[in-house]
Design goal:
By secondary structure, the chain is α+β, with helices and mostly antiparallel strands. It has a single domain, classed as Nucleoside diphosphate kinase-like domain (Alpha-Beta Plaits, 2-Layer Sandwich), CATH 3.30.70.141. It is 36% helix and 18% strand. Strands 1, 2, 3, 4 and 5 form a five-stranded antiparallel beta sheet that branches. The structure holds 2'-deoxyadenosine-5'-diphosphate (DAT) and magnesium ion (MG).
Length: 158
């Protein structure tokens, strides 16, 4: 939400590189291949917009392995990493930059998406309403300002 002043300088203490403006925060959101395959992109985008967030960039593309591996870099050592990269590269995804209010953007968006483990994802959330597995869980959202800056730069290099 804009604060009405039209001021757009970075908030002091903001993560370097984060596209953080006064009153606005950008996060990286992605409808994963299962969402595209199942025809749930409209449903997901609709929930994001109805919540009051604004989509400012959007692109349908099939990521190559290098991009998928870089995106999930933090999970490189996990046993499910290979499967995760296979999944993300199997078809088109919808990559988006989404704007929301202040620092709450990340937590609000993560609540809208639902918890990672399928058994924890609450009904009412995207994963809670539509996913039945942890590995194919429809949507990705940055978990904080630092990840958002990294992921936006990765998917939408300037
Ligand atoms: P999130 O997507 O909620 O940020 P994460 O960053 O911990 O969750 O994991 C990235 C993705 O990896 C997640 O969306 C689904 C998959 N994943 C996580 N834990 C898993 C597990 N134990 N088995 C299989 N896939 C898993
Ligand atoms: Mg994550």
């Amino acid at each position: 939400m804009q604060d009405g002043t039209g001021v757009t300088e970075p908030i002091s203490g903001a993560v370097p590189g984060a596209r953080t403006l006064r009153g606005v925060n950008q996060t990286f959101i992605m409808c994963k291949p299962d969402a595209v395959e199942r025809g749930l992109v409209g449903e997901i985008i609709s929930r994001i917009e109805r919540k009051g967030f604004r989509i400012v960039r959007m692109d349908l593309r099939t990521p190559d392995r290098a991009l998928a591996e870089a995106h999930y870099e933090e999970h490189r050592e996990k046993p499910f990493f290979g499967e995760l990269v296979d999944f993300l590269t199997r078809g088109p995804v919808v990559a988006m930059i989404v704007e929301g209010p202040d620092d709450q953007t990340f937590s609000i968006m993560r609540t809208l998406i639902g918890k990672t483990r399928v058994e924890d994802a609450q009904p009412g959330s995207i994963r809670g309403d539509f996913a039945t597995t942890t590995n194919e869980n429809l949507v990705h959202g940055s978990d904080g300002a630092e990840s958002a800056a990294r992921e936006i730069a990765l998917w939408f290099p300037a």
